[in-house]
Each structure stands twice: as C-alpha cells, then as structure tokens.
Amino acid sequence: MLDEHERGRDLGWATGRHALITGGGSGIGAATARMLAAEGAKVSMLGRRAEPMREIAVEIGGAAIPCDVTDRSAIETAYAEARAANGPIDFLILNAGVADSSPFARTARDTFDRIIATNLTSLFDGAQLALPDLLQGDNKRLVVVASVAGLRGAAFAAPYVASKHGAVGLVKSLALEYARTLLTVNAVCPGFVDTPMTDQSAERIHQATRRSEAEAREALAAMNPSGRLVSADEVAASILHLCHPMSRSITGACLTVDGGATA
Ligand code: NAI
Predict the structure, then answer these.
(1) Strands of 91-94's sheet, edge to edge?
(2) DSSP-assigned letters across all residues of 203-223
(3) How far is residue 152's CA from residue 17's CA, in Å, rounded to a whole number?
(4) Bridge-partner residues for 256, per DSSP?
(5) Which family does the similarity line name (predicted)?
(6) What are the DSSP E strand ranges found in the chain?
(7) Cα–Cα distance between 39 and 62 in angstroms, integer?
(8) CATH architecture observed for domain 4-191+231-257
(9) Which residue in 79, 91, 160, 178 is the catalytic one?
(10) Backbone phi, psi, residue 34, to 5°
C-alpha cells in the first residue's frame, strides 16, 4: 500500500486540505473528488448511494459517507463522521442535485417540493452546518454546483429552474455576508454535461417523444452553442479553480461552463 508521500500527493496545492463533496458518487461530484484527491486533498464524499461512493473512496483513499442531503440531522451526523476522518472542512462542494421535466400544468406539488428540498434547502442546511469550520482558518471555500438554469428560465423545468435560481441567490447573499472573512462563496453554472443526469434527461425525452435516446442526447448537446456536451472533468476543473489559493478574491461569482449558452 502506497502512503501519501509515495503517491506524490504532498506536491499538490490542496495537500492536507479537507474537501467535502455532496453527491460525490457520480458525474461532476466524482470527477471533482478524483481531481481534488490528485492535488493532495483529503476527500469526504456524501451521497445517497453508498456503493459508487465506496468504489471511488477505495480508488482515491477518501471517506464515503451515506447521507440524504434533504435530512438536516443526517447532514449533521455525516459532517461529524467526515470531521472525525479528515478534520475540519476546508472546501465544501455542494453538488448533489436532481432534475425533472414536465409541463408546468402537469407538475405535481410533490415533485416541486422534492426538487426544492434536494437542490436548494439542502444548500441552506449544508452551508449553515459547516460554518464553524468555514469561518476558522485560511482559504476556506464554499462552491455550489448550480446551473445555467440558475441564470435564465427554461420551459418544462420550472421547479428545477426555481431551485437553481434560489441556489444562485443564496451564493450571492452569502458571498456578501462573509466578504470580510477568509471564506469565499461561488457557484459554477454548467450547461448540459455528460453525466448520469443528462442520460436520464435523454431517457425522459425518448419516453415522451418518438426520438431515440441517441437523438435525444444530440438534441441536448445542441442546446449548448458549442454543440457538444460539457464533460464532468471540465466542470470539476472550474470547481478546483475556485478552490485554489489564488482565487481568494473571487467571491459571489457564477462561473459558467456552458459552451456559450449564456453568452
Ligand atoms: P448525477 O446524477 O451524476 O449527480 C447527482 C448526485 O447527487 C448523484 O450522485 C446523486 O446520488 C446525488 N443526490 C441526489 N439526491 C440526493 C440526496 N437527496 N442526498 C444525497 N445525494 C443526492 O448528475 P450530475 O450532472 O453530476 O449532477 C451534479 C450537479 O450538477 C447537480 O446539482 C445538477 O443539478 C448540476 N448540473 C448538472 C447538469 C447536467 O447537465 N448534468 C447541468 C447543470 C448543473
């Protein structure tokens, strides 16, 4: 078994920092976990599904902690476990999220509540419960994975768009509230990304129309002016940029990673 020194982790700029990532078992969260670990960070992943997180934890030497982010007391318990494993949180990456699409008139109130709880209320709880860690020590970071849907409207996705606009509002407000501290608060706002969430969107389009799943994926990629899906690694690289010590004057930003969608 290689120790941290033998893996060369002591060379990375994030060496010794504790990065906690929600929804770390797949897509953008998993890519971010791998990239931060490669820079030397100690990584804790929180998420609903234990198995994919455990596989990544074994690969990168991190902690995989089952947690439903819609449950405030579960977050509290999971943070205690993460601190016991890796110390106070330095980088908090609130990434867990869910999407859905349907005409507004046919959107159930339960769907709205579930999406707001997962994509927005969880940010309130996740950020507030980490504050004791984030307000002590240098170069502390809160990064929220929002979306271009946090910056503009989209038909057939009202709850998702509302949740992501809320996420952006929370980020900007916290950035101002903590501007004089050593904590920065930022959002990344991706366009359509090549992750399981987009696979599910393609599947929904396939079910609702006569288009094949491949055609549906192409249609989603075409919504990015670049004509291609963003990769999870590209979004992860932007998250790392915001965590970097040289980014300490970047706060309240919404970094778009969208192939030009908001240009
Ligand atoms: P994903 O589906 O692979 O990742 C979402 C993760 O959140 C999963 O690991 C899932 O298990 C976890 N999660 C969902 N509900 C949870 C809960 N209640 N408690 C704990 N964990 C929960 O998809 P992706 O794309 O990596 O999504 C990550 C973030 O990126 C989400 O917030 C999403 O809204 C955002 N995003 C995704 C885009 C895309 O095109 N895929 C575009 C813009 C933003």
Answers:
(1) 63-66, 42-47, 18-22, 91-94, 140-145, 183-190, 254-257
(2) HHHHHHSS--HHHHHHHHHHT
(3) 34
(4) 189
(5) Belongs to the short-chain dehydrogenases/reductases (SDR) family.
(6) 18-22, 42-47, 63-66, 91-94, 140-145, 183-190, 254-257
(7) 13
(8) 3-Layer(aba) Sandwich (3.40)
(9) 160
(10) -65, -45
Q: What are the pLDDT digits (tens) for 66-95?
A: 999 999 999 999 999 999 999 999 999 999
Looking at the DSSP bridge assignments, the partners of residue 63 are 44
**Whole-number pLDDT of residue 3:** 53
Q: Where are the domains of the chain?
A: 4-191+231-257, 192-229
First-to-last CA distance in the chain? 48
Q: What number does the ligand 1 atom closest to the CA of 235 have? A: 30
How far, in Å, is the centroid of ligand 1 from the Cα of 23? 6
Six-digit token string for 231: 């990769």
Amino acid at 68: D
Task: List, in sequence order, every residue forming a beta bridge with 52; answer none if it has no partner.
Answer: none
Residues with CB under 6 A from ligand 1: 22-23, 25-29, 47-49, 67-70, 95-99, 118, 145, 147, 190, 192-193, 195-198
